[in-house]
Amino acid sequence: MSADLGRRLQAAEASGGAGPARRDPGAVERITVPVWVHIVRDGALGLPDAAVARQIAVLNTAYSGGYGGADTGVRFELEGVTHTDNRAWFRDPLGFEEPLKEKLRTGGPETLNLFIAQMSRLVLGYSTYPYWYKDDPGLDGVVIDWRSVPGGPLRDFARGFTAVHEIGHWLGLLHTFENGCASSGDAVDDTPAEARPTNGCPPRKDTCPAPGDDPMHNFMDYSQDRCMREFTPGQAVRIRQMWDVYRRPAPQGADPEATPGALAERSDDESAGKR
Ligand SMILES: [Zn+2]
C-alpha cells in the first residue's frame, strides 16, 4: 500500500496540490470530519442517545492529544443521528453490513458514518480503510459495539477508545503490530515494532529486537482502554497524507478527473480493521 500512496502523493504535488513536503512541519493542519451516527437498537436495547455526545467528546480529546501524545489536527463535528429498530441488524451488524449501510450511509469520502449496534464477543469494532472507498463507497464507515461507548457496560473497554481505534483505521492507520518485527511495520517511523498485539495492560512489553518498548499505550494497539492514551506525530502525518489522497473533498467546480482517485487495495490486510 505504501508504494501506491507515495505515487499518488507525487501526483498530487506535480499537479500543484498541497503535498505534505510543502507544509511547515510545525503547523498542524486542521481536518474537520463531519460525523453521522447511526444507532441501531433492538427495542429498548442499544445505545442511549445521551451517549453520542460523550463519544464525540472523547474522539476530539483523543485526536487533539488531550490524553497524551500528538495533536493529529483531526476534529469531529456531529452532523446528525439516525435511529433504526431492527433486531437482526442490531445483533449482527457485520452479517447485515450491506443492507444496513445501503439504508443508512450518507455523504462522501470525507463523511464519517459511525454505526453503533452490538457485535460478537470477539470483536468490538470494524472499519473500512480510506483506500477501499473508490471500489466500495457504499460500505465506507465504522461499526462499533454500543457497550464500548464511554460509560458503557464493557468493563475494560468503556472509555470510548474502541471508536478512537476504529476511526484510526478509517483515517488510514494500521495496527502498531502490523507486520510484527519486520521493518515495514505499520508504515509509521515513530511507533516501535511490535511482534504481537497487547492483551490487557501489562506494566511493560518489548517483543522486537529493534529499539523501543512496544507502543502499548498507542490507540492502534489492542490494549485495554485504561492502557491507551496516544497517537504519535508520525501517525498524525500519515492521517493527513491519507486524507489528502483519499478523503479530502474535491473543491467546488473542480474537474473530478484531475483529482487523484483511490486505487483498490484490498489485500492481506482485509481483517486488520477488526479490533
Ligand atoms: Zn484495529
CATH topology of one domain: Collagenase (Catalytic Domain)
Assembly type of the shown chains?
Answer: single chain
- The count of DSSP E runs of length 2 or more, i.e. the number of strands, is 5
N-to-C terminal Cα separation, in Å? Answer: 20 Å
Briefly note the structural class of the backbone. alpha/beta
How many separate helices? 6
Bound ligands, named by name, code or SMILES: zinc ion
Report on this model:
This is Zinc metalloprotease. Belongs to the peptidase M43B family. Keywords: Disulfide bond, Hydrolase, Metal-binding, Metalloprotease, Protease, Signal, Zinc. This protein has 275 residues and is an alpha/beta fold. It contains six helices and five strands; from the N terminus they run αβαβααβββαα. The protein has a domain at 29-159: Collagenase (Catalytic Domain) (3-Layer(aba) Sandwich). It has helices at 2-14, 50-63, 87-91, 97-104, 161-170, 233-247, and strands at 31-41, 74-85, 112-117, 125-127, 142-145. Strands 2-1-3-5-4 form a five-stranded mixed β-sheet. Helix 1 crosses helix 6 (233-247). The relative contact order is 0.17. Mean pLDDT is 87; it is low at 12-22 and 258-273. The chain binds zinc ion. Zinc ion is lined by residues 165, 169, 175, 273, 275. Zinc ion binds next to helix 5.
